[in-house]
Amino acid sequence: MPSRPRALGLLVALLVAVAPLTAAVGSTRTPSKLPAAWVGPTPDVAGATRSTSTNWAGYINIGRTGSFTDVRASWVEPSISCSPTLSPKNDDSFWIGLDGVTTTSKTVEQTGTEGICKGTVPRYDAWYEMFPKYAVWALPVDAGDQIMAEVAWVGGQRFVLTLTDVTSGRRLHKTLVAPVTAVRSSAEWVAETSAECKNCLEDFGTVTFANAAATKNGITGGIGAFSNQLVTMVARNHSVMSQPSALTPDGTSFSVTWQSS
Fold first, then answer.
1. H-helix or E-strand containing 228?
2. CA proximity to 113, closest of 121, 123, 100
3. Residue 127: strand pairing partners
4. Helix or strand or coil: residue 197?
5. Is 4 within a domain?
6. Would 49 be classed as within a structural domain?
7. What's the pLDDT tens digit per position in 95-124?
8. Are 3 and 137 in contact (CB under 8 A)?
9. Which residues are registered as beta bridge partners of 24?
10. Is the CA virtual torsion 127, 180, 106, 28 positive or negative?
11. What is the pTM of this model?
12. Residue 225 carries which DSSP code?
């Protein structure tokens, strides 16, 4: 989801939507990069690698420069509960991308959906972004819609970003050039909230990223096929805001559950 640059040691992420709900499809949003207050990675007793962030929850794969050429997943757009007691900038975003993590990356190629609240009224949109360029709202979606998304490198600095709303039949399909050199050293599957305000994460229940896969060094596999990190979203007081589940046995699916704002 789109927003302003943020700084977070290891990760480099997406965008947070802070524009008003009146923004039209095709309008732009302030870009962002780097998840906030990143801590990790640390191994757990099962041998997995876990990290925390104040605005990301999900999974990441990391590799060498030029490793990744594709990332994809599907999900059902969650219905968000717009609480009038939260920040007016509150938003929840769900996305996939390349290059959002490593500090050597200066770009992110990503697409996803977001629910944003103004008062108690939610709005849902699909967007794409080639950071550091601004993100673009591309088409409206609805809560409950089945979403399929993919980011593919097609040579040079060119990427194809595709997002299909299977329920409505609407589709965005963009061939874009990275504004700066894309290192293609990571892949991400993320639920995110704004890094720029407190108490911004609306209750989205649970979202499941299914058919989640990447192509790394010419080999396509699920998240679990490659070295991966689980990222838990925590508040600045260290309470859990959103918690990813373990990967399914085949390594291609996981859920993120809202726990607090």
1. strand 228-234
2. 123
3. 112, 137
4. coil
5. no
6. yes
7. 999 998 867 788 899 999 999 887 788 999
8. no
9. none
10. negative
11. 0.84
12. G
Which residues, other chains included, contact 45 with Cβ-Cβ below 8 Å and sequence gap of 6+? Answer: none
The β-bridge relationship of strands 49-53 and 228-234 is parallel
Name 125's bridge partners. 114, 140
CB 89 within 8 Å of CB 226? no
CATH of the domain at 41: 2.60.120.700
Range of the domain at 77: 28-258
Sign of the alpha-carbon dihedral angle for 125, 7, 107, 59: negative
In a domain, 23, yes or no: no
Rg (CA), the chain: 16
- The residue behind tokens 């968000």 is 80
For residue range 20-55, list pLDDT tens digits in order: 222 344 444 444 444 555 454 443 333 357 888 888
- Name residues whose C-beta falls within 8 Å of residue 109's C-beta, 6 or more positions apart in sequence: 97, 98, 99, 129, 130, 131, 151, 153, 159, 161, 176, 178, 182
Give the length of the chain: 261
- Cβ pair 115, 137 in contact under 8 A: no
* Residue 194 confidence (pLDDT): 74
| CA gap 50, 38 in Å, rounded | 11
Q: What region does 249 belong to: left with phi over 0, alpha with psi -120 to 50, or beta? A: alpha
User: How much helix, strand and coil, in percent to the nearest 5, is found in the chain?
Assistant: 0, 50, 45
Q: Is the dihedral of CA 257, 204, 142, 188 positive or negative?
A: negative
Domain count of the fold of the chain: 1
Q: Residue 6 domain-assigned?
A: no
Q: Which residues contact 195 (CB under 8 A, 6 or more apart)?
A: 3, 6, 16, 32, 35, 36, 54, 55
